[in-house]
Each structure stands twice: as structure tokens, then as C-alpha cells.
């Protein structure tokens, strides 16, 4: 039976719950999400739904399942805080290569977490046949540039990289949707390879319409959709001849990352 907490008394902070533990602010929530016990609870709750699992093997297993169904994969492996992220990603790269999945997978790298080792991991991924997507400001030749539509300079960045590979990610709210469509127009009119990361059916439909308007073939761009979200829509798009890449979170820190996304903090 779900535990209920009484409402806040007059004059106190509004209280929310994470894994049935009350917290008073978003900063408290972030600290709570980083605790090992809460991380394990979240991983258990989200595993198989929004997160592949905490292990490298989980990412490889889910990637294999998706590829066998005609979808591609964007690996979003997030090691737990304190773990050696570069070393764990190197293991993932080796396992993906050994499984024969590299040609259908991209590896999303958090430049802020890897720091100076971003280039090292990127080169290892490229040597294994994996395309790399960079989240953050790192400049890695040939990598997919991830551009969140909600950022103030999103359209400028899309114009700057429209001849390469750009993953445009949706934001929240009307302003972000308008920015998303402006960026979409830029990318679809360019000569690069856009990756349109959206689960909103309206934005998915607009992406298809803009691609058709610009005479793009299905292999010249792709949809990117979250693991465990709109799975019927993913299958419908694949059946319709569209390329669909599924973003698959995994690793000890993945559940907390997904929880923050669901709460609009990442």
C-alpha cells in the first residue's frame, strides 16, 4: 500500500517524494538521487522500462534486441558517480564490437564527465566502428553534435553544423517547440545527416513533413526516440520505411539521469 505523507504546514516548503522519501527542494532531490541506495532502487524500478540496466551487458543485450527488430541504437551509458567512466565505456565499446553491433550503434559521450579523456574514448569508439555523439562543448571531428532545442543558441549551432551530423533534442513548453521547428527547418534544408530526437507525436509528424518538403530520402536522416517510450510508434515508423534510432540509457548512474529528465532537470 502506498504510504501517504501529510501536506505541508503553513509556512513550510512544499515537499515532494523520491522513492517514498520526502525532500524539501530540488537540490535535496539531486543529492538524494546520487545516494547509492536510491540509485539501486531507481534502477530496479526503471530497468526494462526506461533503463536497460546497470551493467554493460544490459546495454549490449538491449542493443541486440533492438537491432534484430530493425532499429538502430544510441547508447547512453552512464557509470555511477565515482566510477571510472572512461574505463567502463572502453569495456562497452569492446563488447559492442564483439557482438557485431557497432555498425548500428552510436555512443553518446558526456564531455563534462569525461573531460580531457573525451578524445581518447572517441578514438577508441571510432576504431571499433562506432559513431560518437558528443554532449557538451567538446570539439571532436566527425562526431554527432547534440543540440538541445531549448538552449538559447540552438539555431546558431544548427546552422554551424548543418553540413554534418546533428542530433536535435526536444525541450519542454511552447517556446522550446517553436525553437525545435526552427532548428528542424535549418537541418532538413542542409546537406548533413539530421537526427531528430523527439517523442512528441506532433514533432515527429512535422519532422516527416519537413523531410518530404526538402526531398530527403529515408537514409539521409533519422528519428531518435527514448527506450521504452512510444514503442508502437517506433515500430510503425520502421514499418513505414523510416530510420529509427533508440536512445538506450544504461549504467549505474542511468536511472538517476532518467529521473532528472522526467522531472525536467536534464
Explain how this protein is built.
There is one protein chain. The protein is α/β, with parallel strands linked by helices. 43% of the residues lie in helices and 19% in strands. It has one domain (36-262): Alpha-Beta Barrel (TIM Barrel), CATH 3.20.20. The strands form two sheets. Strands 3-4-5-6-7-8-9-10 form an eight-stranded parallel β-barrel, surrounded by seven helices. Helix 4 packs parallel to helix 6, helix 7 runs parallel beside helix 8 (174-189) and helix 8 runs parallel beside helix 9. It is globular. It starts with 15 loop residues before the first strand and ends with a helix. Mean pLDDT is 84; it is low at 1-38.
> What is the CATH-assigned architecture?
Alpha-Beta Barrel
| Principal-axes shape call | globular
Helix/strand structural class: alpha/beta
The profile of the biggest β sheet is: 8 strands, parallel, barrel
Please tally the helical runs, counting DSSP H or I stretches of 4 or more residues. 11
Count of separate structural domains: 1
CATH class: Alpha Beta
Poorly predicted tracts of residues = 1-38
Rg calc: 19 Å
Percent helix, as a range, is 40-55%
Would you give the CATH topology?
TIM Barrel
N-end to C-end Cα span? 31 Å
Question: Largest beta sheet: what is the strand line-up?
Answer: 3-4-5-6-7-8-9-10
Write down how many β-strands occur, each being a DSSP E stretch of 2 or more residues. 10
Order of helices and strands: EEHHHEHEHHEEHEHEHEHEH
What's the rounded overall pLDDT mean?
84
Amino acid at each position: 500500500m502506498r504510504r501517504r505523507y501529510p501536506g505541508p504546514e503553513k509556512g513550510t516548503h512544499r515537499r515532494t517524494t523520491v522513492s517514498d522519501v520526502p525532500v524539501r527542494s530540488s537540490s535535496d532531490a539531486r543529492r538524494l538521487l546520487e545516494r547509492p541506495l536510491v540509485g539501486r532502487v531507481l534502477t530496479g524500478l526503471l530497468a526494462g522500462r526506461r533503463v536497460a540496466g546497470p551493467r554493460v551487458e544490459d546495454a549490449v543485450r538491449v542493443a541486440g534486441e533492438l537491432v534484430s527488430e530493425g532499429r538502430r541504437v544510441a547508447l547512453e551509458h552512464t557509470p555511477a558517480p565515482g566510477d571510472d567512466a572512461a574505463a567502463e565505456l572502453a569495456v562497452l565499446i569492446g563488447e559492442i564490437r564483439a557482438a557485431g553491433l557497432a555498425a548500428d550503434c552510436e555512443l553518446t559521450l558526456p564531455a563534462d564527465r569525461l573531460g580531457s579523456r573525451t578524445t581518447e574514448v572517441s578514438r577508441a569508439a571510432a576504431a571499433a566502428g562506432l559513431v560518437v555523439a558528443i554532449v557538451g562543448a567538446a570539439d571532436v571531428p566527425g562526431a554527432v553534435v547534440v543540440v538541445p532545442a531549448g538552449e538559447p543558441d540552438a539555431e546558431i549551432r544548427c546552422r554551424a553544423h548543418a553540413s554534418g551530423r546533428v542530433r536535435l533534442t526536444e525541450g519542454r513548453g511552447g517556446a522550446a517547440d517553436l525553437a525545435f521547428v526552427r532548428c528542424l527547418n535549418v537541418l532538413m534544408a542542409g546537406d548533413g545527416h539530421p537526427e531528430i530526437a523527439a517523442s512528441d507525436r506532433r514533432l515527429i509528424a512535422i519532422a516527416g513533413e519537413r523531410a518530404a518538403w526538402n526531398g530527403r530520402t529515408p537514409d539521409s536522416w533519422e528519428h531518435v526516440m527514448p527506450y521504452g517510450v512510444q514503442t508502437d510508434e517506433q515500430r510503425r515508423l520502421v514499418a513505414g520505411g523510416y530510420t529509427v534510432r533508440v536512445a538506450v540509457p544504461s549504467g549505474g548512474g542511468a536511472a538517476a539521469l532518467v529521473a532528472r529528465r522526467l522531472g525536467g532537470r536534464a
